[in-house]
Amino acid sequence: MVQYLLMKIFRALVTVTLIVSAAFVVLRLSGDPAIIILGPEAPPEAFEAFRRNWGLDQPIWVQYFKYFAAVFQGDLGNSMRDGRSALVVVGERIPLTLAITLPALFIKLAIGLPAGVMAALYRNTWVDRLIMMLSVAGFTVPSFVLGLVLAMIFAVWLGWLPSGGSDTWAHAVLPTVTMGLVGAAVIARFTRSAMLEVLGQPYIRTASAKGLLWRDVVRNHALPNAAIPTLTIIGFLVGSLVAGAVVVESVFSWPGVGRLLVNAVANRDLAVVQVILLLVGLTMVGANLAVDILYGIVDPRLRIKRLQAGS
Fold this sequence. Notes:
Layout: H1 2-29, H2 33-38, H3 44-53, H4 60-72, H5 86-121, H6 126-140, H7 143-157, H8 173-199, H9 202-209, H10 214-239, H11 245-251, H12 257-267, H13 270-298, H14 300-310
Helix pairs in contact: 1-13, 5-6, 5-8, 5-13, 6-8, 7-8, 8-10, 9-10, 10-13, 11-12, 12-13, 13-14
């Protein structure tokens, strides 16, 4: 078990390093922060002083090694906009993002899992067709389109909820429901597929032939085995909590990490963007690592196979 964990942690660290490295290079090749922050009318001396102050006048490989040397010392850089620590700037927005993403995750699980199981148990009936029709609609419609539709209905036509902002709990309803419905559609599709695969296994037919009640067969045999592949998509959704909020926060003017990322990219606030991408990478890699660990706990055979494959 220790060898298994060490192998997964090593791969996770390599993945995060690659994500941050790619972001570092792309950000510095995509535009000059001096022009965007100071404005094109600033004198050349101001541009030179800005680049020298932030180390942008050095070769990119020098900037790269200096950045990682600072990261290993706990320094993630300062915002070019206000000079504060980029970690502090991002940390101020995390509670607001969690305020909508965590309830959205609950909605995804509360709707998606039961819907997927029902669709599988009532395969090829009107129940299955209705659930899959709604699931496909939720899966294919972009989140910003769904958000705009919900805002049009509940904010403009009915006037029940505000269309944007973060002043009260009511402002969080529409962005939370938007992300929750999209994620529920994804979970429902994967849960249905996993359940159908399990229900077709010989041990399910054997359990039914022994005279067990169908609900006991489903509860004791089908659901536990279908949970293994379903963990994959749940882990992905947990890992993408921050990344998935980018579009929705922009649509509803929710001042979380997602909206901060959009503004920081537009303003070429390099340190802030890198901290957010590091946060996203750590979240996704951490969620995948947790899923792999749960795989080994739920089914030890998977852990043994992966250890053999890695050796």
